[in-house]
Amino acid sequence: MNIALIILAAGKGTRMKSDLPKVLHPIAGAPMLVHAMRAGATLEPDRTVIVAGHGAEAVSAAALDHDPDATIVLQTTQEGTAHAVKQAATALEGHEGDSIVLYGDTPFIQPETLERMVEARQNHDVVVLGFTAADPGRYGRLVMQGDMLERIVEFKDADEATRAIDFCNSGVIAAKTEVLFDLIEAVGNDNASGEYYLTDIIGIARDRGLSATAVACDEAETLGVNSRAELAQAEALFQARARNEAVENGVIFYAPDSVYFAYDTMIGPGTLVEQNVVFAPGVTIENDSHIRAFSHLEGCHVARGAVVGPYARLRPGAELAEKVKVGNFVEIKNAVLDEGAKINHLSYIGDAHVGADTNVGAGTVTCNYDGVMKHHTEIGARVFIGSDTMLVAPVTVGDDAMTGSGSVITQDVPAGALALGRARQINKVGMARKLFEILKFKKQKRDREA
Ligand code: UD1
Ligand code: MG
How far apart are alpha carbons 227 and 233 in whole angstroms? Predict the structure, then answer.
């Protein structure tokens, strides 16, 4: 069945006390809106429509950055959730299939929950996602009769008896696209808020003899973010979930609570992640690797059996093949390290390729930036780069070559060659002793004068 997603993201989010539109506040390295889009994307929608309003330009940019095929529609005045959905009508004209309404500030709806809603749609015209609230507060109340949903009453408009109901509206609604927009046409704004409530479509549907039901989910899934405190809670919830999932998938941790995940972190079973590791977005780690303590990884791929850290930094474009070793205080950026390459201490490798079984000595730097442009360093297989070698890019070091410690390499090194690029050492016999005497004499003189 064709599915269209309509994601409401026009609200201001006054309580965030921020210039950033609410839905762009990040959780685990991605805007809340992107979390909602990803949840919806698991249904493989044929259209995704984002309703933007406050900060529309930024919201639109973030949405399109994540999914260039998304359609952005504008809600210039925020007149309620039905009014917001209505802005998607033109974009979904003639859509044959279902529409599912999600909120951009409700990032944790699970794919399985959406699946259950799609299933429930087989027997009902409209399906709402509900949850039993520990504290129903200001949520809309779901008035059920058996498994039939009769209507949704907003808190402000509810009488005492209705307020006593603890089965609440999450905001997620599914219906045939045509039916949804038909029902919305009939929604008025004669209520306590003077808004067009999307929730009114249930009563209207029932009056028309259509059927409606509610699918229930865990309250944690429907967590909406309205304040900084709720954003922090959402982050904590995400992290807890990500850790549990990783443990279930066979990842090994010494101190799971100290590991920070991004929304898209992928770690294979058998991999050990030590304490205080940060995964920024775009990290994939294969099976049986070892990420040692205090490492920071972003936009990189680590193959099976590689060892990273402690205190390593992998930046975007770092590609580590099997059994690569990257040790302490090593930074890798936009560089491919072939199988068995070792860079164990205090080095910067950027815009480079390092061949198989090559050993890069301590303190090596690929000098990739000339102040204006970035340049590539090519290092062959089985090379030995001596400690403190400066590789001034663009430069190539051939297979089986060596560089002497402390070399500044500005010319290509042929395969099998030893390159030395440093001043020749001279020893001046007895000179140090003489120097010490002169210096000590000077110091005594200064101390006397003081
Ligand atoms: C809404 C529901 C309520 C439900 C609650 C769950 C209605 C009338 N009420 O109430 O039943 O329990 O969510 O959190 O639907 N938005 C727009 N344009 C608008 C208005 C809202 O894009 O004109 C967006 C907001 O940015 C937000 C979402 O829709 O993402 C929900 O709006 P909000 O004002 O938070 O609705 P609630 O009053 O919380
Ligand atoms: Mg709300």
Answer: 10
